[in-house]
Amino acid sequence: MQTEQIGNELIVRETPGCLWIFGLFFAFIGGVFVYGSLGGFVNYAKHEFWMPALSLLVGLIGVAAGIWIIYGAPMTKVVINRLENTVLLKRFGLFGRRESFYAFDEIERFCLVEEKDSEGDNIWFLGMKLADENETIKVSSLASHDERFVNGFVFQINEFTRKQISSSGMILEGEDESGAEIS
Fold first, then answer.
1. E strands, 68-149, where?
2. Which among 169, 7, 175, 2 has a CA at the least distance from the CA of 82?
3. What value does the mean pLDDT take over residues 28-39?
4. For the whole prediction, is pTM greater than 0.90?
5. For residue range 72-96, what is the model confidence (pLDDT) as tens digits?
6. Which end of the chain has less neighbouring CB within 10 Å, N or C?
7. Assign residue 7 a region: left if phi > 0, alpha if psi is -120 to 50, beta otherwise?
């Protein structure tokens, strides 16, 4: 995930290219199995009757796994415009592009979404808490085990949208300094 500020717009991008390559790998290898089971291999007639069926099953599972991996990780772009007080959430995935517009008034704040991974450890997503419906939308599709990493984006976006004030830790950093050093 990366952010870019251009004037009064903050753009947050998340591009899961490695996951898409991983999904294409599964789909390609599964496709080879499907091709072979449908008579594409040279020695197709010499196999037992159950071999093409097994090959077809393994191939279809591989293709389905590849599609599932790619579908579960769309490219995400969030454009926050401070002049128009809008948030544009764009997702581009395997089955097209989806766009959602939100006014600042519809959004309570950006937040962390906590879930558990397959091993029971906490993972964190960037989320957007809506004001009226008390609903939280997962903005990012890629999880992070580092809470501070995602929290940095949450803080930056909330500060840009004026949904939170600056951290007291940032304001009180001068406490360690003596009076002579500050003036």
1. 75-81, 86-93, 96-103, 107-116, 122-130, 136-138
2. 7
3. 91
4. no
5. 888 889 899 988 989 999 988 877 8
6. C
7. left
